[in-house]
Sequence to fold (206 residues):
Amino acid sequence: MQMLRQIQARRHSAILYDPACEFIERFYDESRGDIVLNPLDRRCPYWGPSEELVRRAEARTVAASLFQPTNDRKGEFFIESPQKIFAHLLLDLPSPQQLVHWMSHPEEIDRRVKGTELASLIDPSAPQQRSGVLGSPAVVAFAAACCCSLSCSALSWFFKSCTLLSVLSWSVGCGGWPFTACCCAGVFLFVELKSAATMTSNAAPR
Fold:
């Protein structure tokens, strides 16, 4: 708590992982441009992953924030392949609800990659490879779908919480503090926030 007061006094940026929602009560400041990433909070902003795209090439960056690499080089294929498929889906500029539906239904993915080089990654004639590649999008879709019963904003928040690009743009650019509570995407967000905090610290002037 004392450290946050010092950061606030110096007008520095901070990223707060706040599962108990105690920091937001003490430190939230709308005039500073703070962002609340909590689907149960009316201040949670609407956002869709496809809205992050300024250029087509950025789709792979968004995909990489969801499907994280591992230290096992043998498993790289099953990380990079879902990234490529997810990035391809993003290029159709779907809403969060559409994206979850597509990732939850392999036949939708089949239809959207038909005639592209991505079709070979999920070829039904190689069932084990197909299952391995489609398994990751299904897991992400399941976690995101848990937000569907809350609100459109909540589902959008799931994707926002997994996207380091947006977190960095807030923390470095506008000076606002992102606050997030623990929800269905908490594990993803915690990893990304640690990365964002490290990168922000390294980029800060000495």
Remarks:
- The longest helix spans residues 127-145.
- Residues 45 and 111 are 32 Å apart (CA to CA).
